[in-house]
Amino acid sequence: MATRSRRSKPFRLQDLGNVSWLLWLDITAILAWGVLLLKYWLTNKLNILLHPDYMWLAYSTGAFFLVLAGLRTWQVVQLSRSHGISGSTLQHFSLLPRRWSAGILLVVALLGLVFTPEPFASETALARGVTDTLTMTRSRPQAFRGGTQPGERSLIEWVRTLNVYPEPDAYKGQDVNVEGFVIASPDLPSGYFTIARFVITCCAADVYPVGLPVKLGEGQTSYPSDTWLRVQGKMTTETLNNQRQLVIAATQLEQIEEPENPYDY
What we know:
Radius of gyration: 28 Å
Structural class: alpha/beta
Largest sheet: 5 strands, mixed, barrel
Shape: elongated
């Protein structure tokens, strides 16, 4: 008895024409998200979207999506060669109609590829409220370490230090050398501005601004909002808005480039 061989049909481009457009929509959406995540990783845009501890999840997912899109394409080609497929093939469970869910994913990914994410600026900081303390809902230091010299503390380290020991007069006269962006706070009198940084704990949705008032010295002029500065001077205390606060008495202001990663942790 002769054995009947089962050979698959050769690949023909016209076979793909019989594939439902919904399948191609699925594949395109997965591919677009893979490209988007890897693009943000390679262009360092993930810095302004995620805390560094979670970046590996983003670029790993991007690579997985590219592989998945390739496997899905291979699967569609194989099925179209063997017996053809239609829109009812390769169904999956979805809360939304299939064309809607895949279409929304694709549109969002394309918007992400067209529009480059930008770090938050002073307008967002004013809307969210600039503080010099960490609230109960935010990460708080569990111990105070006095080993860091005052002149070596970053802005967020000053805020954390003040949060542990909130007595402004304890820091009076200490050296200051911090970097941040300018906020023209409407609550401050003329001759003052706020030097601020955003702190990110997980993703861009939970960033919050912290900052300290800066008092301009004689002959110094303020800078426009969102200008990045290195501020050197001495800590002092003043009563602003009926509240005794730690204030940086600036002796030198130097305009700097915006850091590659503008957020602190």
